[in-house]
Amino acid sequence: MGNLEKAIEKLEAIIDNWEDTDPEYLPSNLRKLRHRIFFVHRVLERSVEILIIKKTSSPFTDKISNEERLGLNRSILIILERVSFIRKIEILKDLGVETTKSLYKNLLEVNKIRNEFAHPEAFALRDYEDKEERWKILTLLVEAMEEFNKLFAAIEVNN
């Protein structure tokens, strides 16, 4: 093992120790739940960005070169990276992308839970230790992803 790997392991051990001794310690099941929430939120947010890019750049596809289209897409993405998740969903609607009420509600709920885990109030995440609460969140994450995948597929077929 090289010096860099040893240094990384040492730093990770320090951070793990901090997390393990934090007064607001999260048990491993909540750490896994947090990871899943962050993962699903990231995938959903990137997918929303892709749809926005497709909708905004598609009118120009046959009028500009591939290189220009890629530049346009990168520029749109740079702007979108500074826009909140909620606003991105609103932009999708403004661009004529129809979401079901269920999908819209699930996207908002995933964002709310992600924010709760990213910026927790003292000991508030303990509520999620309840198995039924974890089941509800995991169900929400799967439903949101499945509904969004259906929307994404439908848009791909129509384009």
Task: Give a description of the structure.
With 159 residues, the chain is mostly helical. The protein has one domain. It is built from 6 helices and no strands. The chain has helices at residues 3-21, 28-57, 66-80, 85-94, 101-118, 131-158. The longest helix has 30 residues, at 28-57. The model has no long low-confidence stretch (mean pLDDT 89).
Question: What are the key terms here?
Answer:
6 helices; 159 residues; mainly alpha
Strand-residue proportion: under 5%
Q: Count of helical segments?
A: 6
Largest sheet: none
* Number of E-type strands: 0
Question: Helix share of residues?
Answer: over 70%
> What class do helices, strands and sheet pairing give?
mainly alpha
Mean pLDDT: 89
Poorly predicted tracts of residues: none
Q: H/E order of the elements?
A: HHHHHH
Give the domain tally: 1
Shape: globular
Q: Ends: how far apart?
A: 50 Å
Write down the Rg: 20 Å
